Amino acid sequence: MAPPFAVAVAAVSSSSPLFSSSSSRPILRRHPLLGSISVRPRHRSAVASAAATESAGKLLLEVHGLTASVKETGQQILKGVDLTIREGEVHAIMGKNGSGKSTLTKVLVGHPHYEVTGGTILFKGENLIDMEPEERSLAGLFMSFQAPIEIPGVSNYDFLLMAINARREKDGLPALGPLEFYSVVSQKVEALKMEPKILDRNVNEGFSGGERKRNEILQLSVLGADLALLDEIDSGLDVDALEDVAHAVNGLLTPQNSVLMITHYQRLLDLIKPSYVHIMESGKIVKTGDSSLASHINEGGYKSIASFV
Amino acid sequence: MSPPSLCAAPPRAGPPPPPLLRLRRRAVSSVAASRSAAPSVSDDLVLRIAEQLEDAAPSSPLLDPLRSASALSLLTTPWPTRRSNEAFRFTDISYLRSLPISTPTRTPGLAPPTPSSDLDSHVLFSDGRLVAASGAHVSALADMPPGHARDRAAAAVAASARFSHRDIFYDFNAVGASDVAVVYVPEWAKMADDPVHIMFAYSGSDGASLMMSNPRVLVIAEKGAEVAIVEEHFGVGEEDGGCYWANPVVDIIVEEGGRVVHSYVQRQSPAAAHTKWTTVQQNTSSKYEFVEVSTGARLNRHNLHIQQLGPETETELSTFHLTSQNKQIHDLHSRLILDHPRGFSRQLHKLIACGTGNGIFDGNIQVNRYAQQTDAGQQTKCLLLSPKAVVNVKPNLQIIADDVKCTHGAAISGDLDPNELFYFQARGVDAKTATDALLFSFGAQVINRIPFKAIEKKALAQLKELLAVSRQNN
């Protein structure tokens, strides 16, 4: 089987002639740093056996030619996304506002606002498009919302307990009682340096921006996930909070599970090191590289990527 | 002493009635006279009920001024109908006419076991009769020792005879109330953390009549005093009490700088009728916090009337009504009258209507000429869970002052917020379970404002149960 990186590059070249590998070669010469990345990701090259383990990592998510539109208006947002994620990988998607990054994660988890109009999504070999949102979650997909909504009247604790018991029911385990669950959840709250009182409060009600983001990661750490889709978990977080959140996410990473994060900022990528960075534009992934692609954007903006062609 | 007769007043053996009672009898015997003299202004049904209540109510000199005034008023008040009375335009009260009225027997021999309260201060009404009142500031009006508190309470009861917004239900209560439970909190006394638990237990008669009860409570928080009351209305005995008509009145006076924390839980039997008046007078810088949870009764009508008597008052009203059975009617008519500057008020009304239930909300806020710099907010949210459920919502703000901040919003929807549902689903909880949780939370948002854990918990448990039942039925 082809290594994922090759798949991604192939996808880019097939979907966008502007970003064909041949046209990018002269630019690589002008930017030796970027060139070295594209050919052999620096992060991975540090680990001698990187390539070998990657190709051994099992396929987790395979997205091919995914197109999707807003259900109500029919406006097409995703215009042929190709993305492959294997176990143990950390991916980051960057791109301008409105390029379809958030939509991609929402479509992956089955948000009712969007309609898949074409392409395929396989998660652990199963067709994700036919699954209900809750089935996708139980299958091991987790999305942290960019703007988590408030649920007045439902306490955070009850919400988490319902979610964990839905998972346990699927696994054939007996439901946890409120008392048993407390010891599980209180550790996670502590690890995220959150106030224990956060559990008694209603879900996201009156939470600050930072509290909401931490709360999303708290849910992730309680529920676990094979693939976590983190949509701008860094926005609205101060430096310390970002470190807490990143620390929690890193703590969840194992050779078996993976993360796909959306971000605008280098700082998050310094804390959670991505194996791959994808650039999204107009509903497609137009470029894939390693973490130095992100630093390139950080310095020169998206223009600098566009100026390659 | 034998019950006073309404029509004829033959002299009977026993001590002579006090002068006030005589006056009342004269007034009431004119009721009988006018029945034949002017049938066009009097309503037979109203008079018949008034007579029955008169007959059953024991004499009580302190209540007489109020009784006389109400008896007179009932002479000329017709039974309200949807066509004749704007306040009942959407509320079908024909259930009250479906059975003849009966009054509780004077001997409580077969009374079902009465519930007990965990709280030190408590009051118990059984079928409208005041059977227990204990606590530092709690007493039956008739048992109050002579002195300032008694004079104050008696004057307040007498003054309610002049309450201009009353309707026949207020008057029925005045005529039929046997005594008044008084919660009198003297100046600067603070007891907001130690609520007075007022329990109203009701039971039906044989099922061939509606047994009518008229319990009455007066709460006075003097200057700087703080008091919390928890009102609970429920049926006892077989079938949760079965068929009865509860017609309670609670009058509350909050003096300058005082604070009243009021929780109200109505979980009457599904066959009961419940017509309730709550009147509140708020003096300067006083605070009134009210939380209502009404889930019971076939017909439920709550008139909530709040009158501002001085500037800088704070008023918080949170109410939740659930019609979980078919043909159930839940009606909240609230009126907040602001006549003084810098008042602050927040009102939230939530309503779920299932099956063929009917919810009514008329929320009136009057910001009058001198109520400048008032900050008044009102919000109502209704959920209709079936195509045959009906809600009639009439939020109305009458603003005459020109320097005010008033907001209001009314939302009626047939579905839960899809974004909220999705949030649950995204965490692995299926849509059905999420729907249950969200419906529960819709009501819990109000119930959570009850400041007393035990009461709050009980109300939440009952909500959960009723939602489960109504889902099975639909």
Structure description:
The complex is a heterodimer of chains A (309) and B (474). With 309 residues, chain A is of the alpha/beta class. Chain A has a single domain, classed as P-loop containing nucleotide triphosphate hydrolases (Rossmann fold), CATH 3.40.50. Helix content of chain A is 45%, strand content 24%. Chain A contains 13 helices and twelve strands. A six-stranded mixed sheet of chain A has the order 6-9-10-3-11-12, with helices on both faces. In chain A, helix 10 runs parallel beside helix 11. Chain B has a domain of 291 residues. Chain B has eight helices and 22 strands. In chain B, strands 1, 4, 5, 7, 8, 10, 11, 13, 15, 17, 19 and 21 form a twelve-stranded mixed sheet that branches. A ten-stranded mixed sheet of chain B has the order 3-2-6-9-12-14-16-18-20-22, covered by helices on one side. In chain B, helix 3 packs across helix 5. Chain B is globular. The relative contact order of chain B is 0.08. The N terminus of chain B is likely disordered. Chains A and B meet through helix 7, strand 7, helix 8 and strand 8 of A and helix 6 and helix 7 of B.
CATH superfamily of chain A: P-loop containing nucleotide triphosphate hydrolases
Beta fraction of chain A? 15-25%
Order of helices and strands of chain A: HHHHHEEEHEEHEEHHEHEHEHEEH
Q: Mind telling me the CATH class of chain A? A: Alpha Beta
Short description:
Chain A is α/β, with parallel strands linked by helices and 309 residues long. In chain A, 45% of the residues lie in helices and 24% in strands.
